[in-house]
Write a sequence for this structure.
């Protein structure tokens, strides 16, 4: 299935990057993408020099292999709506900032739900689909683009690779490893201490680089047509991601409660454990929360940016359309890969907010249908993680508990009465087929 999907991606790539801006690489087929990745790798390797050249080259090769693997494994999604949107922003930024390297960039849109973006340090960038969920307008998205372009301009990623390799191969670090191995008592503790020390060193370096990318990114940004205040507003919205993606308490007992089939409270009960887990163990509790943020010290970064700008930012109607389009892509992707817990959460969140569009209801019915099928084939547990007392995403955890507690007969009934509730409203072929599926099961 993944191979078929990859071929579909390759065929769609030519139209995906048809844009008037030459700053973004425009391939004609799948092979050209792979060749472009190789060209970027060779270019970066040619710039290497110094004592650890061969070791850094190995790190670059790993990076290239990960990008290729992600491309072939259908991690990326290609659609001209996204690519034209992003490449138009890149074109605007580079035209107004001619000091930026005008080398053609390779840009990917990732299917991931988390609102993140990445610069790989080789003129290759990745933007997650989840950005459309958290950001409010094109201006905010444009600042994220400027931030990533600043990382590339400042060569942050390659510098980080160099620093890490030098640190790992230094005499001091090798001595500490040797001392940790020779420790008879508390060897694990000594090893963890060394890992923490090394991690904090890199993360401290990363914080500096994030501030630098903010500052330079803002300089790039202020020369464009976009409203400058979107810079700190974008970071403010992404700050909500620190506490998780799934922050809405889904009222499952209200949505799946029907006159003919009442909601059963035991569907929400967590499985009892033989052990006292009131004080939860965390394997990483020595690692402070702030030290593992993708974008560290974000509150201070917001303050710095906010002090530099004052102009208001207005929503873009076209961006609202793109947000809605991206949401549908997210749902279809999750259902395609049978990530039913995530699909259920996003759909139920919208419905709980009062949105009962044909798309939402149809896709929730499809999620119920897939739940029934996977349970009847005894593979539901392989697809959907069990709820865990150690989970940080509490609301998603509660939903997983509900889904795992449902028996096949429960799903059959819930699916039937849910479809019946909307049978007179939705007449699409897809919904009608799902309705017929559950009706036949309940005859």
């Amino acid at each position: 299935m993944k191979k078929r999907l990859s071929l579909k991606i390759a065929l769609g790539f030519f139209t995906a990057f048809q844009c008037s801006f030459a700053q973004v690489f425009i391939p004609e087929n799948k092979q050209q993408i792979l060749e472009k990745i190789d060209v970027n790798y060779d270019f970066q390797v040619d710039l290497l020099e110094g004592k650890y050249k061969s070791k850094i080259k190995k790190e670059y090769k790993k990076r290239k292999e990960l990008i290729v693997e992600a491309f072939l494994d259908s991690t990326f999604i290609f659609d001209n709506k996204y690519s034209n949107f992003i490449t138009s922003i890149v074109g605007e930024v580079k035209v107004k900032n001619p000091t930026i390297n005008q080398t053609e960039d390779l840009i990917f849109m990732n299917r991931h739900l988390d609102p993140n973006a990445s610069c790989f340090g080789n003129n290759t960038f990745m933007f997650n689909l989840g950005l459309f969920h958290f950001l409010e307008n094109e201006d905010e998205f444009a600042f994220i683009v400027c931030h990533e372009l600043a990382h590339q301009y400042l060569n942050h990623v390659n510098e980080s690779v160099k620093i890490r390799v030098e640190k790992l191969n230094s005499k001091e670090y090798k001595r500490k490893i040797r001392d940790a191995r020779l420790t008879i008592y508390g060897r694990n503790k000594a090893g963890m201490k060394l890992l923490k020390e090394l991690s904090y060193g890199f993360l401290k370096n990363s914080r500096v680089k994030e501030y630098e990318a903010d500052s330079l990114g803002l300089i790039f940004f202020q020369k464009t047509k976009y409203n400058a205040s979107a810079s700190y507003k974008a970071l403010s919205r992404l700050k909500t991601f620190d506490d998780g993606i799934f922050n809405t308490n889904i009222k499952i007992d209200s949505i799946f409660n029907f006159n003919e089939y009442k909601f059963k409270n035991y569907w929400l009960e967590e499985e009892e454990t033989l052990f006292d887990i009131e004080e939860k163990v965390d394997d990483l509790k020595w690692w402070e929360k702030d030290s593992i943020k993708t974008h560290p010290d974000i509150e201070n970064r917001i303050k710095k940016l906010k002090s530099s700008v004052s102009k208001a930012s207005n929503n873009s109607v076209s961006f609202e359309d793109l947000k809605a389009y991206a949401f549908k892509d997210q749902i279809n992707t999750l259902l395609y890969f049978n990530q039913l817990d995530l699909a259920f959460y996003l759909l139920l969140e919208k419905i709980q907010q009062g949105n009962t569009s044909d798309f939402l209801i149809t896709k929730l019915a499809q999620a119920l249908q897939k739940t029934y099928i996977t349970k009847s084939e005894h593979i539901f547990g392989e697809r959907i993680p069990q709820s865990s007392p150690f989970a940080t995403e509490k609301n998603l955890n509660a939903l997983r508990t509900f889904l795992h507690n449902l028996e096949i007969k429960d799903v059959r009934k819930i699916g039937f009465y849910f479809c019946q509730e909307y049978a007179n409203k939705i007449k699409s072929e897809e919904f009608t087929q799902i309705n017929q599926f559950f009706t036949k099961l309940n005859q």
